[in-house]
Structures are given as C-alpha cells and as structure tokens.
Amino acid sequence: MSWVSDYQYTCLQKLALNTLQFSGQIPHHIAFVMDGNRRFARSKHIDKIEGHSRGFSKLADVLRWCLDLGIREVTTFAFSIENFKRSSDEVEGLFNLARDKFAQLLKETDRLDEHGIRIRVLGNIELLPADLQRLIASAMLRTEHNDKLFLNVAFAYTSRDEITQAVESVLHATNENDDDGLLPTDINERLLEACLYTRHSPPPDLVFRTSGETRLSDFMMWQIKSSVLYFTEVLWPQITIWNFMAGISAYKRDSSRIDDFRREQRLHSAQLAKTSDFYSLRVQKFLHKLDANRRKLLIALASN
Amino acid sequence: MMQLLCLWIGQLLLMLVASYELLQQLCRRLQAFAHRSYDYWQCDQQQQNNRLLFERTIRELEKLPKHLVLVIGSDERYVNASQVQRIFGYARLVGIPYVSVYDARSPQHGYVDISQFCRQSASNNRIYLWSPQQQKQQKEQNGFNKTINANGRTCTELQVFQIRATDGHALIAQMCRELYVNRGTAEVQTLLAKRELLSEKLDERLNKQLGFPVPEPELGIVFSAVTCTFGLLPWHARFTEFHTHPSGRHFDAQCFAQLLYKYARCEQRWGK
C-alpha cells in the first residue's frame, strides 16, 4: 500500500469534488487527528495493529483527495508522546508499522517526486528507536526539495514538548560571539512561533478530528488559535470522501465568520515582528542557524 | 463546460445554505425571545425547577468537571454579562468549583468584564468570587436556601477567573524571556540538560504567573458560530473538551445539563 492511493472516483464524487474546488475558499492547510483505529478494530474483531494499518491506508486515500482538491499542506497526528504509555506490544506494533511505511516510502520516492510531496516529521524523534530515526531522517532529507504538497507527520509529538523545544532553542542561542546573540527584547510570541517544529508552515486552517472526541489532545495547541475545528463521529478507518467533503464545506461556511479575527491576529503578529526587530540580521541569523542545526541533526541520524 | 457547471452548482448550494442559515438564525432568535419571556414570568418557579433538574443530573452523572471555561468568540453578539452570570449560577448549583471566562471580543464589541459583577478575592488579585447575592435583590426573596447546592454540599462562593488575551502565547514568551535573561545561572543550565525538567519548570512558572491554582480546564463551552479556541491558553487547554453553543440560541439550565451529560460520556484516555 502506497502513501498516495489510486482512488477511483465515481462520477458523482468527481462532480462534488469539482464543485467544492471551483467555488473557492479551499483550506490551505488541514490537520487531521486520526482517532478511532482501535475502536474500529474492536468493532470488527480484528487485531489493534490491523486497525492502525487500515487507518494508514485511509490516510493514503485522504492524501489523494487533498492533492486533487488543491490543498497544499496536510498535518496528521500519528503518535503522541503520551502514547508511549500504551502496552509495549501495541507501541512496538505501531513502530513496526511506521518502519514498514517509511521503508516503503524510501522505495517509492519517484512517485512522491512526481506529485511533489515533501514529508516532514514533527516531534521529538530522538525518543524513537534508532532504526526508525534513521528511516525518518532519510525520508525527510530525500524529499526536502519537493514543494507541491507538504505532508507533516506528527510522530512522538505533543504540543507541550514542541513549545518547550522552542524555548530550549532560544535558550541555547549560543553566545560565542556576543554581538550576534539575541537580545531579551527580541523574544516574544513571534520568535517562539518561528522556533516551533512547524516553523516553515502556515497555521492550519482546519483541524479535522474523527471518532466524536471533542478535545485536541495536545495537538498543535500553539498554532490553532484561529483554526476552524471540525469534529465528526465517524471512526478514522471508516471515513469516506463524503465525510471529508462535509468537513471542507463546514470550513467554507465558517471561515468567513472568523476572517476578522484572523486579520486582527495577522496584524498583531506583524506588529510584534516590528517591535521586536524580528527581521533584523541578528534574529534572522539565529533562525538560520536553527535550520542548519536541525538539518545537521537529520544528516547525523540518517547516517547512523 | 464542466467548470461552469460546477461553479453554478456551487453558487446554488451556497445560496441554499445561506438562506437555510438565515431562517435557522431567525428561528433561534424567536425561540430565545419566547424562552426569555417565559423565564421572566416564571422567575420564582424557575429557580426551583433548575434545582430539581440539576439534582437529577448529578445523581445520574459519574463525573463532573472541576474547571469550566467559557470561550466567547470574536463574532459572538448575544452573550452578555447577565448570560454569563446565569451560567455562573448553574455552575454553582451543580457544584463546579471553578469557572473561567475567556472573551475574544474587544470592549467596544461587548467584552464581558467580570470585575463589574464579581468581588475580588482578598488573597489573590486574579481570582474573583461570585455569589448570586450580588446579582439581584429579588432572588433573595424566593425562599431558596443559598448555602446548599444541588449536590447537597454546602457551597461557598464560586471562584471565577478572567483569562486575558495576554495569558496565552504572550505569557509563555514572557517566561522564555525571563529564563533567557538568567540563562547564565546554574539553575537554567540544569534545566537545559533535560527537556522534561524545562517543561515542568515552565508549567510551574506559568501556573504561578496565572495565579489560578486550579486543575486545567476540563470542559469548554464555545459561544460562537464557529468552533475555534480563539487562542485560549495553549499550554493548559490541551485536554479540554470543547462544545460549541451556536450563536444566538438560548442557553438555559437544560442546555447546561446536556453539556454535562456529554462531558460525562467522554472517556479521557490520557494517551492510553
């Protein structure tokens, strides 16, 4: 099973998809919380891991739909740091599934290049087993030149960990050469935002959570301040294109209502950038170094 | 051709949805008006009915939230101070000890300032205390014993807290700035050795700075046409169950009880 499926649309689905696409207001970035794999497995009397595996193949369908609808960025919550608390069998099973899928991804990179898909894994990947780290780092490095669809997989991720990581990177801003060090006045929300794992992504426009839970479970808490949240009862492996389109339609309906709030937020952010000298050489150098360090880490992990 | 057809269908659907929503909104306003007039005339009876309703709710529910947060969206036009106070009243009757209010609107657009109708706590200037006595004199004459809530426990004043826009992202940035200024100290250097330590420290300092020593909010009611957090506490609202109350619909004790049922039905798994 590939990362992007060859989904065959029926005529009606094609028509509905085109209607959605041509009537404008398509979200740029969607975040999915893929919940309900285990409940699905229980209801079908299959193994938990089989449930997760079905969930993954559904993700491939969803990616296809996103690609065809013209959505540029998709973030999925695959594995939370809190999930380490699950039984070791299940955690190991999930890691095996991830190993499989990333190994397969590395085999079919031509197909990803063809669609221009870039994979980014968000999270504290150093918490994962070494071989999985290597696979993830290689996949990220291998697809880093693609820019048509960004697929962010949150793996070993929690929002608290991400925010702490951002604070950590600011505190680590080395002071070898004191002239270039950050000034305390440079530090504000704008700078922290630029240090998150999602530093190169716009905030999600729509957060889509399946299985009827109405909480965010520590997923992108920093980024979702003006995102439309859409909760649906369906379990992730059972999601159909109609559920997906219902979510997009809900976004279309709601986005105009919070446009003013978004504009305010953007203005506020621009103002913060101005007051804190965000575009000064000093800050930009720091951010550049942050990118360079992250890439260095990936190269080190990939060559392990 | 296909494109034109799709565009046309899209426009038609949009128009249909818009007119449906307009009708729905009208219907809600009419209902709200009817409910309000009914409540107004049944004032004495109402209090007693709510009490009975909540007594039944509590008997049937296994868990209750300890901390409720009211999120008022930037587009909300109908929630005002009296509505907020009504919800405080329900929370007090049910026995929820802490309620916070986060209003994303500006003062020109109806921002609810709880200091207008709540008494500031003597020990902590971020905590406000609310009791129905401060509300209306007439309620004192309805024979309802205010010191006992529907749970049968004696209740003190409700502790309320106003979450400001600066309590969210900006506060985390402020903590970061303070740590950065002291980065040379041994304390910060030890924190940098392990991420969990830094995370715990941030948590501790944020809680101290917020000045509201209570559990993280467990239930959030979003008053808006859109389900959105509007930037509510990114550090603390991670496991909050959000329920949206559509803009314009009347919010009464029944709605509140329904939300409590929904909350009690959800299973918190904490990652497991």
In short:
Helices cover 51% and strands 12% of the residues of chain A.
Describe this structure as you would to a colleague.
Chain B: Its cofactor is Mg(2+). Chain B: GO terms for molecular function: ditrans,polycis-polyprenyl diphosphate synthase [(2E,6E)-farnesyl diphosphate specific] activity. Chain B: This is ditrans,polycis-polyprenyl diphosphate synthase [(2E,6E)-farnesyldiphosphate specific]. The complex is a heterodimer of chains A (304) and B (272). Chain A is an alpha/beta fold and 304 residues long. Chain A has a single domain, classed as Undecaprenyl pyrophosphate synthetase (3-Layer(aba) Sandwich), CATH 3.40.1180.10. Helix content of chain A is 51%, strand content 12%. In chain A, strands 3-4-2-1-5-6 form a 6-stranded parallel beta sheet, with helices on both faces. In chain A, strand 3, helix 6 and strand 4 (149-157) form a beta-alpha-beta unit. The longest helix of chain A has 22 residues, at 48-69. Chain A starts with 10 loop residues before the first helix and ends with a helix. In chain A, 46% of the residues are buried. Chain B is an alpha/beta fold. In chain B, helix 4 (169-181) crosses helix 6 (195-210) and helix 5 (186-193) crosses helix 6 (195-210). Chain B starts with a helix and ends in a 7-residue tail after the last helix. Chain B has helices spanning 2-41, 43-60, 81-94, 169-181, 186-193, 195-210, 253-265, and strands at residues 67-72, 98-103, 119-120, 127-130, 158-163, 219-223, 241-245. Helix content of chain B is 45%, strand content 12%. In chain B, a hairpin with a 6-residue loop joins strand 3 (119-120) and strand 4 (127-130). Mean pLDDT of chain B is 82; it is low at 135-147. Chain B has 7 helices and 7 strands; from the N terminus they run H-H-E-H-E-E-E-E-H-H-H-E-E-H. Chain B has a domain at 42-165 and 215-265: Undecaprenyl pyrophosphate synthetase (3-Layer(aba) Sandwich).
